[in-house]
Amino acid sequence: MIRFGYGTNGFANHRLTDALDVIAGLGYEGVALTLDHHHLDPYADGLAHRVAKVADRLRTLNLAVVIETGARYLLDPRRKHAPTLLDDDRDKRIDFLRRAVAVGDDLGAEAVSFWSGVRPAHVTPALAWDRLVDGCAQVLEGTGTMKLGFEPEPGMLVDTIAGWRGLREALGAPERFGLTLDIGHCRCNEPDPVPDCVTSVAGHVVNVQIDDMRRGTHEHLEFGEGEIDFPPVLRALAASGYRGLVAVELPRHSHAAPGVAARSLAFLRRAEEESRHESRRPGPEGGST
User: Fold this and answer.
1) What is the pLDDT of residue 142?
2) Handedness of CA 238, 244, 245, 249 (dihedral sign)
3) Helix (H) or strand (E) holding 155
4) Which of 17, 155, 271, 283 could form a disulfide with 230 if both were Cys (CB 3.0 to 4.6 A apart)?
5) What is the pLDDT of residues 165-223, one digit of tens each?
6) pLDDT mean over 25-30
């Protein structure tokens, strides 16, 4: 069975401990923890003690964890997501990513996820690419053995699976530089059908985010509100050999988080059951489809 999780960026109005309790109580098996002001701030005092308490809570609730690093104003109160690996002051982002990996190590996280950022207008495409490659290399060099999941993000310098492949090649194809695959982004931004996207990166995915989306529109939607047919996607994930978390990412739904999380898990379980039923259906030659 697929292990479903839920992202804490969809519980922005909850204390982290309360969010973990609700997520576990609904039946999720893991959590995608976005480090933020109110959710395990890596810059606040007493970090080691706070991390230890969260680790204890995760163990008590039997929740697996991945670390997400997409907090909007954690590093700069005036610039959303800034600085990124492409900015002039990118060292602050590199330091943050190293802190995220350290937190992940202490929590027993399965992966740490991050993205490139949007190219600043004054930075040339060539310089932005050089900065990205160098920044990723610095994070890799300073973070031990943690799996890193790089996420292609619509509107950012690296926005497709092909862009991730190019970045991985530029880094020398390090084994632990994997892919964070957002299922919604595949529908939004990739030329191929979503199940084909999943199949094409089998063996490289270290983190999966899941949400509904429409072609060409980067808006994370509740399941059933977009254009994705989920049973074939879940069947492709199962067939790919991926065994990590598949975490719901609905960052703009915090106002109704418990209800949205409950509906999401019910939808995904139905879709998973349908995916297994379809895989057992006899094909035209008597085999399975």
Assistant:
1) 82
2) negative
3) none
4) 271
5) 999 999 999 999 999 999 999 999 999 999 999 999 999 999 999 999 999 999 999 99
6) 98
Asked if residue 284 has pLDDT above 70, the reply is: no
Structure tokens at 215: 């072609």
How does 151-181 read in b/e, with b if 16+ C-beta sit within 10 Å? Answer: bbbbebbbbbbebbbebbeebeeeeebbbbb
Q: Is pLDDT at 275 greater than 80 in this prediction? A: yes
Q: Is residue 249 within 8 Å of 2, Cβ to Cβ?
A: no
> How far from 270 is each of 193, 237, 241, 275, CA to CA, in Å?
21, 15, 20, 9
Q: What is the pLDDT of residues 112-147, one digit of tens each?
A: 999 999 999 999 999 999 999 999 999 999 889 999
Q: How far apart are CA 268 and CA 264, in angstroms?
A: 6
- Whole-Å CA distances, 15 to 9, 11, 22, 68, 74: 11, 8, 11, 17, 16
Would you state the structure tokens that stand for residue 191, as one six-digit string?
């030329």
By the 10 Å C-beta count (0-12 exposed, 13-18 middle, 19+ buried), 262 is classed as middle
Instruction: With CA atoms as reference, report the closest residue to 257 among 71, 28, 92, 2.
Output: 28
Average pLDDT, the chain: 95
Q: Which residues contact 38 (CB under 8 A, 6 or more apart)?
A: 12, 15, 16
Q: Please tell me the distance from the alpha carbon of residue 250 to that of residue 7, in angstroms, as a whole number.
A: 7
